[in-house]
Every structure is written in C-alpha cells, then in structure tokens.
Amino acid sequence: MQTLHRILVTLPALLAFGCLPPKGDLGQYTATDGEETGDATTGDDTTTADAGTTVETGNPDDTGPVATATSSDDTGPIGTATSSGDSDTGPDEPPACDGPGEPTWESATFSFEPALVGEGFAADCEVSDIETHPHGADVALACGEQLVQLRLELDGPLTEFAVGDALAFDYRMVQSFGQSEWFTVRRPAPDGTLLLGGVLGETLTPPNAEQFFAPLSMTRQEGVCPTVIDCDNMSETIGVEFTHGDETALVLALHSLVIGESAPYRVGASIARKHYDEAQDGQGGFCQSFDIPEYYYGLMIHHLGE
C-alpha cells in the first residue's frame, strides 16, 4: 500500500511541471527579446506585409532572428529598401557611375492659384516676375485668371526668358505611387520652340504624349551602370538616351550634356534609377519592398539659343 500511495502522490506533481504553458507570442517575429519589429507575419513558407513595408527573411536554420521588418508611412516614391519617412525628399539615388558630362542636380516645383482641378494645365502666359536666388530662380506666370509659380533649382543662371515675355506653358500630373509631373515652357505659336522642360516621375513622358518634349525624344537605357543588387542596395543607376534630329546623347544620373548644333539643348538627369522589389540577403534569405515605382526620373532640358 505504501508503494501505491507514493505513485499517487508523485503523478500529480509530474503533471504539474510537465504542462507549463509556452512563453512568448509565437505568432510574431521579433528581432530582439520582447521587441516587435513590424507587422510581418508568416506561416507555411509564405511572408506577407503591409504596403510600404520592407521585409528581410532569414534562413530558417539560423539560430538568430528569422526576420526583421521596417515600415514607413511614406507613400511617395523611395529608392532604397527602407525609407526615412519624409515624402518630400524623393527617392534616394544610388551612386552615379562614371560618365561624360557635367554634374547636375536640377529640379522644378510648382504652385497654382487657384489650385488646379484635374491632372493638367496648358495656357498662353506672360512672365510677370523673376526672383533669382543662389541656386536658381522663382518664376511667376500670369495665365489669364490662373497664376503659376515655378521654383527652379538650377546649375546656372536662367537665360531662356525674361520678365514680360509671352510663353506657352504646359503642365501634366498623374498620381500613382506618388505624384509624377512633366512640364514645358515654349515660345508661343506658331514658333513653339521648346525653351525649358522637365520630368519628375515614373515615366519619361506623360501618358499618350510621346512628343511632349519635341524636338527631343528620350528612351530608357539599362545595364549601363553594373550594380550588385542586395538588401543594402535595391536600386540600379540607369541612363536616358536623348535624340535630337540625327544626334543622340546618353545621359547618366547626376550628369548633363549638350546635344544639337544648330539648336543646342543642355539635357541633364538628376535622378535615373531602376528599383528591384526583391533581392537576396546573401545568407539564404531575401528581402522585399513594396509600393516603390520600378523606374523614377528627374530630368531637366534647357534651350541654349540658336
């Protein structure tokens, strides 16, 4: 009877120690003990994440963390696997490869009064004011009842037009991952000479407007800057080939060139990049980034005179 009594006393104790509940939340990835790294979840070899999130998935045989995730509220285009969260800075550009031409980092931003309704505006305008600053000029256009303000970041002085000049202004805008913009400033019809133009967006020309920058045309050129794509760099510098008559010029990111003899233009690319949405991490895993445009450009075109 003593042996039976000992078994009955020992069995509940063994059950109590052998059925302790598991520690931690097994449904969340963690990078360090007790810290959540994002909204990434996994199950049965699949990985999902909210849009705008970069996920790095490690080798399941590793003893360390199997995943890390960083998230961004930035809905605009970005050019690396993680974002600073500042939608006004535009995409981060990978280092430019060596190429001919002068360095450049030009841009144009716009404001309209009253605010635009729709995705574009085109009108005959008059230059009502030009205010120069150390890095460019602010240009005011009076287009009937519409006032347009251009803030130009330039490599040199603005010489294409002056206060009092009549101009034809054309602006297009499309919302996608972010906001893509294209603009031209021309002499009024019937002349129509392109004086100034620019792109900040996902495509070289607006939708259904391949001749928007005539007499110049542009095509994308990939493979001109060999780049190792991995989780530390998911962007590749590309080139833009400009054609003017029988002449062509390949412009790489952060460079500018002059094309054309009888009617020369200076063409520059402050941004020209291709983004990869998935890359290997070198340890048997991979990383992904979402809601980033595959291509992004920042271009400026200047007419240099006859």
UniProtKB/TrEMBL annotation:
Q: Where is this region: Disordered?
A: 28-107
Point to the regions of Low complexity compositional bias.
Answer: 39-58
Q: Where is the composition biased (Polar residues)?
A: 68-87
Q: Which domain of life is it from?
A: Bacteria
Entry protein name: Uncharacterized protein
What is the native source organism of this protein?
Nannocystis bainbridge
